[in-house]
Amino acid sequence: MNQRQFVAGDKSGDGGGRPGKNxxxxxxxxxxxxxxxxxxxxxxxxxxxRLREDALAEVFGISRTGIRxxxxxxxxxxxxxxxxxxxxxxxxxxxxxxxxxxxxxxMVECGxxxxxxxxxxxxxxxxxxDMAQRERQALKSxxxxxxxxxxxxxxxxxxxxxxxxxxxxxxxxxxxxxSLILAVYGNAGHLGCESHDHDDLIGYLEAGNGERxxxxxxxxxxxxEASLSIHVEEDEAxxxxxxxxx
Amino acid sequence: MNQRQFVAGDKSGDGGGRPGKNxxxxxxxxxxxxxxxxxxxxxxxxxxxRLREDALAEVFGISRTGIRxxxxxxxxxxxxxxxxxxxxxxxxxxxxxxxxxxxxxxMVECGxxxxxxxxxxxxxxxxxxDMAQRERQALKSxxxxxxxxxxxxxxxxxxxxxxxxxxxxxxxxxxxxxSLILAVYGNAGHLGCESHDHDDLIGYLEAGNGERxxxxxxxxxxxxEASLSIHVEEDEAxxxxxxxxx
DNA sequence: ATATCGATCATTGTATACGCTTTTCGGCCC
DNA sequence: GGGCCGAAAAGCGTATACAATGATCGATAT
Lengths: 246, 246
What we know:
- Chains A, B: This is GntR family transcriptional regulator.
- The structure is a homodimer.
- By secondary structure, chain A is mainly alpha-helical.
- The first copy, chain A, has helices at 9-12, 25-41, 53-60, 64-76, 95-119, 122-140, 144-161, 165-185, 195-206, 210-227, 240-245; strands at 50-51, 80-83, 87-90.
- Chain A is globular, with a radius of gyration of 20 Å.
- Chains A and B meet through helix 4, helix 5 and helix 8 of A and helix 4, helix 5 and helix 8 of B.
- Chain A binds a DNA duplex through helix 4.
């Protein structure tokens, strides 16, 4: 699927962006937000990539005002970094941030498991299995972007079963950031979740065994974190003295 | 009802808002954000209060553009609610949201306790004791706003000791929202944390007893939640049939 | 030839202008 | 007298214009 999901035809329909043409504003903005967010999560926009307001405005056929709003939202979710007077760029997570994110996931996603095991329905199980299967398939056929997206969606969907919207939202953000972390510190070929892991987890949940699911999720997340190659590359302000004093 | 806590003298300094006068922009925006955020957390702006962009723009001496940016940030933190075409108002949390927020606090704040007990320093203890004492004093002298603010600050500061910026940030948001919840469901006179609770908690942490601190925090939060009077007032779309069919 | 300084250019920050929607108030009809 | 409809006003959504700042490239001097 090509990623031209933003409808470029819509802007030409009004004869050149007549101002004041209101109406489907909120929906369009949400769609643009999703487009950019997806592109980042799927690594089609890589960490460090600059996001110029003019360019985005032209691409999506709205003015810079709307783009800025979307960029600010993405910045609050820490998917993009807003540098004063320099503009927006895709966030390049530090090693510390990566550790924080995975520690947070460990605490929250594991803590949620018992409640999820209690509340999970047959419908949920069907949806989760479908996602897990599609993820495995994507992984096998080399569609990395799709696999990454499905993996994040799996964890997010799981959290939403808990019924706690606040925590589910938090997990969703953490998964988005994890995707960025994988882009920077992940080894090619071994990206994130082992596919059968998710299937195993579904099994524990179907059996209503929250404690095993919790323990398994813990190992699962620790395995992902362990698979990262966190070379503490201090790109900015290298210690020249130490480098040249040997 | 006019709150003049903002510095109005600063805006008159440039002779009437000359456009393009740049320079201290970011700092000023942050200050305005803090002003509004504080007013909400301290219950000086009550849930449901409308926040008109024009009025705020005039009050703070910047244009609506900047105000909108700040309002959107507050909306993402769920302190204000943005209704399309209707503008912004202070969020009135639902009973469900209140439950979610306290469940989240229970999980995260308790889960953080062992690590906090491990990392807490003498300096932290001094700061925490100071806050707890000031909170008790404010409570005694009837300064509700100050007490609420200090209570939220206490929990936030505590979380930051864990060293996990992501989770600390999450706790900060949860505390802000808790303040809103107290404004809607709290009983007057018995607001939030019992003051000596915080002192007891500090004691456990100083002793390095993370497990007792965790258990105590659990009771503490449950006590706050239990003190709420959550009458499930379904203001919007009341079920008239049920009401009049008896 | 290279380094530094200056000018132009590219890009963001902020304000303002204008259209559209919603609300409210007044008049009219029932 | 009360309710409904219409018009005016108020307030939000979006685009555009302008200014300031940081970056880049070129010229000049050493």
